[in-house]
Amino acid sequence: MSPAAPDDSLTDASEARAPLVLAVDIGTSSARAALYDAAAREIAATNAHVKREFTATRDGGAEDEPEDLLADVLRVVDDAHARAAAGHLQIEAVAVSCFMHSLVGVDAGGRAVTPVYGWADTRAASEVPRLSELFDERAAHARTGCPFHASYWAAKLLWLRRAQPDAFARAARWLSFGEYLLAQLCGDTASSVSMASGTGLLDVRRCAWDEEIVAGLNITAGHLPRLAADAETFALSEDYGARWSLLRGRPIFAVEADGPANNVGAVCVTKREIALMIGTSGAMRVVYEGEPPGDLPASLWCYRLDRRRVAVGGALSDGGGLYEWMRETLALTGDGEQIEREIAAMQPRAHGLTVLPFWAGERSTRWNAHARGAIFGLRTHTRPAEIVRAALEAVALRFAAIASDLEAHAPGAQLYASGGALRHSRAWTQMIADATGRTVRLSRAREASSRGVVLLALENLGAIKNLTDAPPPVYETFTPDAEAHATYREALARQESLYKSVFDPRH
Questions:
Q1: pLDDT value, residue 507
Q2: Count of structural domains within the chain
Q3: pLDDT in tens, 328-362
Q4: What is the largest CA-CA distance in the chain?
Q5: Cβ distance 235 to 252 under 8 Å?
Q6: Residue pair 461/92 in contact by the 8 Å Cβ criterion
Q7: Residue ending a domain, choose from 258, 275, 309
Q8: Rounded mean pLDDT of 185-204?
Q9: 30-36 and 48-51: which strand pairing?
Q10: Residue 431 structural domain
Q11: What is d(CA 453, CA 22) in angstroms, rounded to the nearest whole number?
Q12: Is the residue at 382 inside a domain?
């Protein structure tokens, strides 16, 4: 493992190169805003951040109140705007990234009539069999790039129609939080192709709403947001223009999906690079210019970055969120550095545990929302730190399975990683290198999704010619250990066997 590389993703306001872009990144566990310069470097003094959490319900819900989420976004923009004004900085454009797969219903006046339902909400899992009765899943997957699963809109809409008929009837349109935010700020809204592709209702080949699925759900395209043109921009309403004078009249780009944007921030935009991100959840993707693959395996999805570029990959619902759950639930003593030292000192699989890391249900590779977390092999002398290590290894093994399925779409691609969970755990990053058998290059940039939407904005503004010309972030390199890789290959086989025993009724 190489020594930590310096972080050149930050710059001083005095060294910033115009144009400056305000980036807003909205996650399920935080909201952030900061200014970036023409070299896609964050201007450190402008960073604003607020932590937040979706409400988890005992029946599998993951939801938030739209007004509460909006208030957090306004708070970080207020803060970043004030810092920019204090530094006499001029903002040329606004770019926003937002978590994918959310759903909120609004009435004819644009007022929310439901909570914001997040990707981790599994209550719609009961409707997945109904989708298989209504549609040919294989054909739908080929068109939309999305398997039938509770995280996507089709299942959520069926569930809402059944479980909350009054709210469903009041909804004149269905939006992601990104479109809801744009409507509040600008009085107009549209969905970027990237955000729409994460609904499961978009034909990713035609970049249009899928008529068969929309009609089969007994809704119309009028219930869905308009699809924004690439590089389309919006302007703040009069009230918000008065609130943020530096943003008055400035172009605001349609909200981009944080997943594909993460690839852009890591400058992983060809088939030569695979991007791995672990934040609260995790994903592994390849983004490239061209058409969706004609032979997409059932384990993977295909989204869009824009009308020229697609994103193929897999996602896990449990990532850094599982690490935090372990730390809190096991009441681990000591600070994060002490825990990191303990798990780093362990040998692969020395704990003797096998973990199924599906606390929030399963997405890739089998898309079983009914799957649940399991720890097998506990003994009286098992220590909490060993359970944590086993859980992190289990997530690494799931990414090894995704990487294997991605190989056909990005043969021999190099693996680049980002995300706060990995930046704070070099031990976990090493586990992923060992589990996948690939060298992992960990970005030192703090927010790859924010950097990604900035680079997209700079491309649309003409400040850079193409995303492939963007300056890459600095990386720290983690090299796989051959002996550890062999151990993890055996561990993956044990994990697969346990999964079949617990969750596959045909086994």
A1: 45
A2: 2
A3: 899 887 777 888 999 999 999 999 999 999 999 99
A4: 65
A5: yes
A6: yes
A7: 258
A8: 98
A9: antiparallel
A10: 267-444+474-507
A11: 10
A12: yes
Tokens of 89: 């900085």
3-class secondary structure, 426? helix
Characterize 183-214 residue by residue with b for buried, 16 or more Cβ atoms within 10 angstroms of its Cβ, and e for exposed: bbbbeebbbbbbbbbbbbbbbbbeeebbeebb
Say whether both 325 and 343 belong to one domain. Answer: yes
Both 19 and 127 in a single domain?
yes
Tokens in use for 305?
């970055």
Cβ neighbours for 227, distance < 8 A, ≥ 6 positions apart: 190, 191, 193, 196, 207, 208, 209
| One domain for residues 254 and 403 | no
Cβ-contact 147, 57 below 8 angstroms: no
**Per this entry, what is the length of the chain?**
507
Locate 438 and state its tokens.
């690939």
Q: Which of 41, 39, 111, 27 is nearest to 69 (CA)?
A: 27
For range 277-299, the mean pLDDT: 95
Note the pLDDT tens digit of each residue in 235-262: 999 999 999 999 999 999 999 999 999 9
End-to-end CA distance of the chain: 41
Beta strands (DSSP E) in 54-158 are 55-56, 62-64, 93-98, 104-106, 116-117
Q: Which amino acid is at 30?
A: S
CB-CB contact of 291 with 205 (8 Å): yes
CA triple 186-190-191, angle to 5 deg: 130
CB atoms within 10 A of CB 2: 11
Instruction: Give the residues across from 478 on adjacent strands.
Output: 440
What pLDDT, in 10s, does the model give residues 76-134? Answer: 999 999 999 999 999 999 999 999 999 999 999 999 999 999 999 999 999 999 999 99
Decide if 475 contacts 416 (C-beta within 8 A): yes
Which pLDDT band holds residue 228 (cuts at 50, 70, 90)?
Answer: very high
**Other C-beta atoms within 10 Å of 116: how many?**
26
Q: Are residues 115 and 192 in the same domain?
A: yes
Same domain assignment for residues 383 and 433: yes
| DSSP assigned state of 267 | T
DSSP H helices in 114-164: 128-134, 137-144, 153-163
Band (pLDDT 50/70/90 cuts) for residue 505 is low
Q: Which of 191, 225, 258 is the last residue of a domain?
A: 258
182 with 278, same domain? no
Cα atoms found within 13 Å of the Cα of residue 400, Cβ hemisphere only: 29
3 within some domain: no
Q: What is the model's pLDDT at position 393?
A: 98
Question: What gap in Å lies between CA 291 and CA 330, rounded to an integer?
Answer: 46
Whether 254 and 271 map to the same domain: the answer is no
pLDDT tens digits along 69-80:
999 999 999 999
